[in-house]
Amino acid sequence: MSHFRALTGVVRGSSLWIRSGHAAARRHVFDPRRGSSSESAEPSLAACTSSYVEEMYYAWLEDNKNVHESWDAYFRNAQAGSPAGEVESRRPSTLLQGRAMTQTPAMAQKVVEDHLAVHTLIRAYQIRGHHVARLDPLGILEADLDSFVPSDLITTIDKLGFYGLEESDLDKKFQLPATTFIGGNESTLPLHEIIRRLESSYCGHIGVEFMFINSVEQCQWIRQKIETPGIMRFTPREKRTLLARLVRSTRFEDFLARKWSSEKRFGLEGCEVLIPALKMIIDKSSEAGVDSIIMGMPHRGRLNVLANVVRKDLDQIFCQFDPKLEAADEGSGDVKYHLGMYHERINRETDKNITLSLMANPSHLEAVDPVVQGKTKAEQFYRGDTKGKKVMSILMHGDAAFAGQGVVYETFHLSELPSYTTHGTIHVVVNNQIGFTTDPRMARSSPYPTDVARVVNAPIFHVNADDPEAVMYVCRVAAEWRNTFNKDVVIDLVCYRRFGHNEMDEPMFTQPLMYKQIRKQEYVLKKYSDRLIAEGVVTLQEFEEEIAKYDKICEEAYTSSKDEKILHIRHWLDSPWPGFFTAEGEPKSMSCPPTGLDEGTLRHIGAIASSVPVEDFAIHPGVSRILRGRADMIRKRSVDWALGEYMAFGSLLRDGIHVRLSGQDVERGTFSHRHHVLHDQEVDKRFCVPMNHLWENQAPYTVCNSSLSEYGVLGFELGFAMASPNALVCWEAQFGDFHNTAQCIIDQFICSGQAKWVRNNGIVLLLPHGMEGMGPEHSSARPERFLQMSKDDPDRYPGFTGDFEVQQLYDCNWIVVNCSTPANYFHVLRRQILLPFRKPLIILTPKSLLRHPDARSSFDEMTTGTKFQRVLPDNGPASQNPEQVKRVIFCTGKVYYELAKERKQQNLESEVAIIRLEQISPFPFDLVKAEVVKYGNTELVWCQEEHKNMGYYDYVRPRFLTVLDNERPIWYVGRDPAAAPATGNKFTHLAELKRFTDAAFNLKSFEGVRF
Description:
seven-stranded mixed sheet, alpha/beta, eight-stranded mixed sheet, Rossmann fold, thiamine pyrophosphate, 33 helices, elongated
């Protein structure tokens, strides 16, 4: 009886009640004597009037002609869900009509088992059908790297035995479960037709992975889209549109190959269907209301996407092939297949405006993934698009990179997080089935390159890229999925690479079998055009005219491109900032106003920072003490590091500047100093962000703890900062050295983004730094790495006119500071927004100074008229009598407080001046020179707590010599060179500190090293 229930259900009231394996142990069983249901722990046929009802039902399931027509009507009514009373009233008076009397128990058992087998078979195809789908256009490799056919899929007649079925069962009809749509309007089908439809749905040119999704609704949605008979149909108009798009995709590559046969272009040959695929996604998304799409992709096919999807002017693309072309804009520019583009146009399929952005991307193929997501999130945020219905992202990938690069997982991992979700991304994998020269069997351990997407329950559609209509249908479904569920989806275009890694490469060296087949492979355009001509959708003349029309467009653009003498890189911007720059792309001014505030504003922000602006909110006693401490500081007109940051953020919010702070544990702060999010100690999930209660019409403040990712999250914040210049976007590392796992983003985007892509970006990196005796980990933020990549010339004293500070900042590629006072931290954050341009800002933030009693600033250093101090001169007795000073020590950061303490202990405050470089890069030549001149021929020392081969020494040394015209010596004092950033022994740390601080003040037996 349990088999009977599992297969067919039981009549409950008037409906067939299908049971699943998750049903409760107690079942409702129909009692024909009462026409109602009762409960039974172990229901059996004894509850029925006669066992013949069961036998008759079995017989009816096998063939409705096995029973009398009255019983046929009865069972049909029950299955259709008619009311219980109506069904029971129509139950035949005799139980012995029809052919059920001939049904033996053994025969009944066979019917049960056969129905169970068919239901299991259907599920097997849904789960594993993709393993036998015909996905490889070349017919060589299996897309899942395994030629094994799952034993539970019917691929030959002999496989029927796996389910206990026989060849004679192929013509029998079976009841279809509610979890399939292969029947269309039919509820029963012969077994051979069931298998045929399953193979058509799951084993053709489309393979679908979705049964791992833990949502019944979503699985049913996909099943309907894949299984419904005849659903994958296209009108003649749609087919002609597809053909026209294939013509453009193919002929563009042909044109480049003819004109520049010896140039690398990373063409799309072998996956020409990508262009119509992207256009289908855009069309369906536009139809659903999306009007802005941000895209990211590697280099393969980028020029084709720029030309035929984003619609960049062809002459601008072609002119880049001219080796004599001069760059009009500042910077090196980048190769044509790395550049991006922004374009607003009409979508001709929907007659709606659409904005397309293709982000610039270096050769680090997947590095752009989180950047695209961050920019998409920013556009959604600024437009109030909380569900992603207006702005969306499309990411294109290569198969080897998608499987091999960890940032892919880091990006997927952000997709459902509240502060990072973009409400669904459509991923398109151009699956070349090879990575440069590496066979996929040597490049990944997973069956498919797309398996990483399963971690977020994203459905994966594998499709043979040589079947354009199958690709178009998958793209249509993917766009509808994203619009319906706002979740990620993956399209795996299984294709090939016709000419190797690039057009100059010889792939036969390493993949001879594959490329012998590729040489014989007919172009997809030829195959599809022949098909449409045979169907009568287009004529040969119409097809040839379409080719001629596009070839003429390319030739005219080629002729026009020869008139281009100068390449304007700015035309390749992927996200312009309207109104921020002049029409020529220059800043509207070259000055920066003072960054101080009136005292009333400081006190107002301080009052909110030291209170809880929500009633009946229970805060932690420790947090309460911190708030009381802040209130006490406000009364004394002083601020610590956390309060200085609070005032900088709060004042920008008042001016309409959105502030976003992201990173691991930033809400509280790694060192428990910030507490920008207060949590109610009595009510779960109740929290308060006081910063959002500062002003009536303030900009929003976003502070969000991130996942434990640096590469992905920093890339995301970089993309967020790209969207608007009117936002302060900060990423804080838990410890400064953690930025090393995001080094790709720093090297490829932040350091060189303006030079390569003319992309201004004002992102701020907060990197806790300082030698505290805590070991080599979490000590150094590696300032030497940032300084080495700073582009200011060490051997030339800048000859700027006008505002030296602003001109120097405009000329640099990024700014590196190591603030030693809360006031300077406050000012540098505000300066970041008040500057008339945007540069990345690297701040080496403190750890022990967060609570150091001497690391406090007065309101007087932050009020109206004050500004960021690039150099903090000595303000003690030494400064008042410079002629009596015997030594000047230059330093930066935390070591100042250790030097000041030692100077006081040795009673040398009148003889030794200590000067702090707060801005290290660009180097403050003018202010350093003024200090050197002030103290005459006094002995000069550079002191740092970092080891000699780290920190700032190699950067400041040549610049000091330039200031001194190489005529005076300056001595180095600090730790000796080492391999690790710091010792792991506390005693050794203190001994090193004592040694170099002694050396800094030992005027008689100096142990320093001359520069």
